[in-house]
Amino acid sequence: MPSGMASRPKPAATAPHLLHHDTTRLFSMTPIRTALALAALLAALPVLAQETTRVPHTGSDIAIDGRLDDAAWAQAAPIDLPYEISPADSTPAPVRTTMRIVTTRDALYLSFHALEPDPSQIRAHLTDRDGAFRDDFVGVMLDTFDDHRRAYEFFVNPLGVQMDLIREEATGNEDDSWDGLWTSAGRITAEGYDVEIRIPFSTLRFRDTAGARRWGVIAFRSYPRNVRHQFANVKVPRGGNCLLCHAAKIEGMANVQQGRNLEIVPTLTMTDAQSRNSRDGKWQGDGLQIEPGVDVSWAPSPNLTLNATVNPDFSQVESDQAQLDLTSNFALYFPEKRPFFMEGADYFNTPFQVLYTRQIANPDYGLRATGRTGSGAYGAFAARDSITQLLVPGVLGSGFEILRQPADVFVGRYRHDLNSSTSLGLVATARHGDGYRNDVAGVDGRWQHGRHTVTGQVLRSESTYPLALGFDDASPAGNAARGEYSYDSRNWSMSSWYEQVDPGFRADLGFIGQVGYDKALLGGARNWFFDNGSKISRMQLYADYDITHRFDGQLLERELEARLSFNGPMQSNFGVHGMTRARYWNGQLFDEAYVNLFANLTPRSGMQVGGNFRTGPQIDIAASRRGQGRFFNLYGNLSLGRGLNLNADIFQQSLRRDGGTAFEATVLDTRLAWQLDPRQRLRLTVQASNVDKDPALYARPVNRHARNVGAQLVYSYKVNPRTAVYAGGTLGGFMDDQHRDLFASSRGIFVKLSYGWQP
Question: For position 241, what pLDDT does the model report?
Fold first, then answer.
């Protein structure tokens, strides 16, 4: 992100997250034992049969131009999307959509004919890849192993803008960091819009079997009007916890060709960054840095991918979201944005986040293998990191430390599916350096049947740290365990989980910032759905109770929270959220509480606005005093014409106590993007933070004023996700009590080139 920027917490959720804590300490490891017992008893439960569509093969060419006039489409198998699955409950869709599907020897072809009575109501904008989810769009989810575990998602808006994701069914996560190589085109017509898609078989991974293959498929259309309607080719009942279990079946794809499945991507990055400590200071830097590198990807079979990288370019073009939180003592989380680590990241997911790839800060090389077997999935990678970044956890807080020495990194993950409902997994991470090592290993399991899901994980870590770091324990060791049960139905849902982490547990390649505690939660929700004629389509009430103890029995937190939310007109979501808790800090128990009002809506095509306002008593952790806290957040997204987009987010956090304002912090994050055409984009990012504190209210010296400002301008030209040019510059400014006038403290320029070559 632009130099000198502050950091901030994620904006408060605009829709309720369901039941994310646990019940009570009495449950201990019971959920894990329950998972194994249920897995043994129900391993042989049958899977309901699905109707199968035969996918025809054609030898004719299809031009991907958004016009459905190629002769091959007459041979394609039609699949209608007759059901509205949201907000309605699998009722007849109000408009018609037809998908057609056909294959050649090297690709899967899809077309969509989406009718619209009033084409002027179609919402479509030129955006960057993965940026058109607020528009009308159509697409498909492909479960290419037909095991209800993982699916490719390909979506296209009416102007041909691509969106692709990997869906992991176990967590419900849809990861848009994956960028496949495929072709699409869209066109608005007098009847609605048409879309054509070509997906090379080399982009997909599937079972390496002879003869016809059987895949799961969900055809999908998003239809945003006063509410966001969603249509599909299958019925998807409300309250289900397995979307892919409802996929229709397609059969065919025999004797397909994937080509050599070899891709070589040379990269060249040139940077010149400078900084200074004062307005009159001399600009200093390392001069022009030129870094060549190369990435190689090879799929020797349809279910195995090998990747290698030498001197990889791990710079990120997209700025991090600005964050700041003065009421927490834990390290802030920033999502991964570097392509090498984002691709295939879902292979390494476990209940505990034992892998957080931003801990691998500056690798010299890396090797990775990911793949599927007939009954499972595996992933492994090794790297040499030139520095060692540590997330040092604690009971009440965490922070980062840097070891100026290289380290060798290894991560391995394997999941075995006993059947469609039950899986067991193994995970191991290791990082070793001079006088340093951290090893983690564990097992996990998941059972899901109908409305019930049980998950569990047990981990063990052993570590050795250099004495120079000054840790109280230079050789910590410990265990971590978690068990969870959840239930989801149309109107009711509940969840309970328990986790325990020993004081000596360390996962240096992960993001586990708290250790030495046990925590339990019990929560539940009730949903009410209303007819299409009602202004309110859904109402939800949820509540949960959680309790956390330190390893020695000291109460750390006892919390009760509840939320009432509504889905209404203009795709709106609004409601009220309340929380009350006892929180332990610096040897004392403090009472905290808040009431939070939230709302967001889409008043017209290309416009979204929202906000949060929260107030209540809270702790000033820097002074160990309680005061009256306030937080507000306003955000919006506005499309100006087809290709110009403005995104703005501002929030302010303050606390009053002892007759004054202890602190007031404001953060602004604004991004203006101009999509010149489907390949070219110009983006300006401006981020700023301002923190004011009253020194008279603190025992230790604090800055009365501090301000950071950063800007980044980037031009990009993308032929595809692998072949691209980026060029831009950054400028950062800073001020505090020692530097009372804002001055430019950092600046830089960069050029990044990459070329995807498929021999």
Answer: 77
DSSP per residue, 719-740: SSSSSEEEEEEEEEEEE-SSS-
Q: For position 317, what pLDDT does the model report?
A: 57
Percent of the chain with pLDDT over 70: 91
With CA atoms as reference, report the closest residue to 627 among 600, 592, 596: 592
Range(s) within the chain of domains with CATH label 2.60.40.1190: 56-252
**Chain mean pLDDT for the chain:** 89
Q: What is the mean pLDDT of residues 404-422?
A: 93
| Three-state secondary structure of 339-372 | HHHHCCHHHHCCCCCCCCHHHCCCEEEEEEEEEE
pLDDT of residue 136: 97
Question: If you average pLDDT over residues 51-55, what whole number do you get?
Answer: 90
The CA distance from 348 to 439, in Å, is 16
- CATH-assigned architecture of domain 56-252: Sandwich (2.60)
How far apart, in whole angstroms, are the C-alpha atoms of residue 103 and residue 62?
10
Q: What is the pLDDT of residues 357-382, one digit of tens each?
A: 889 988 999 999 999 887 889 999 99
Written as one letter, the residue type at 664 is E
For residue 540, pLDDT beyond 90: yes
601 vs 570: CA distance, rounded Å: 6
- 193-211 b/e with 16+ CB inside 10 Å = b? bbbbbbbbbbbbbbbeeee
Cα–Cα distances in Å, from 335 out to 60, 175, 322, 471?
44, 12, 12, 28
Mean pLDDT, to the nearest integer, of 131-138?
Answer: 95
Distances (CA, A) of 338 to 403, 425, 714: 22, 26, 17
Beta strands (DSSP E) in 404-552 are 407-417, 422-433, 436-449, 452-464, 477-488, 492-501, 517-529, 538-550
d(CA 587, CA 421): 46
pTM: 0.84
Residue (of 169, 162, 253, 180) closest to 218 by Cα position: 169
Task: DSSP letter for 57, please.
Answer: B
Angle at alpha carbon of residue 67, lines to 66 and 71, rounded to 5°: 130
**Three-state DSSP class for 74?**
helix
Look at residue 433 and give its three-state secondary structure. Answer: strand
DSSP-assigned beta bridge partners for residue 660: 657
C-beta separation of 133 from 153 below 8 A: no
Rg (alpha carbons) of the chain, rounded to whole number: 27
The residue among 380 and 176 whose pLDDT is bigger is 380
Q: How confident is the model at residue 338 (pLDDT cuts 50, 70, 90)?
A: confident
- 718: number of Cβ within 10 Å: 18
User: Model confidence over 649-698: pLDDT tens digits?
Assistant: 999 999 999 999 999 999 999 999 999 998 999 999 999 999 999 999 99
DSSP string, 380-408: EEEEEESSEEEEE-BSS--EEEEESS-EE
Where does 260-396+409-754 sit in CATH, by number? 2.40.170
Task: Tell whether the torsion through CA atoms of 140, 144, 149 and 154 is positive or negative.
Answer: negative
Cβ count within 10 A of residue 596? 20
pLDDT score of 555: 98
| Residue ranges matching CATH 2.40.170 in the chain | 260-396+409-754
Closest CA to 712 of 733, 732, 727, 730: 730
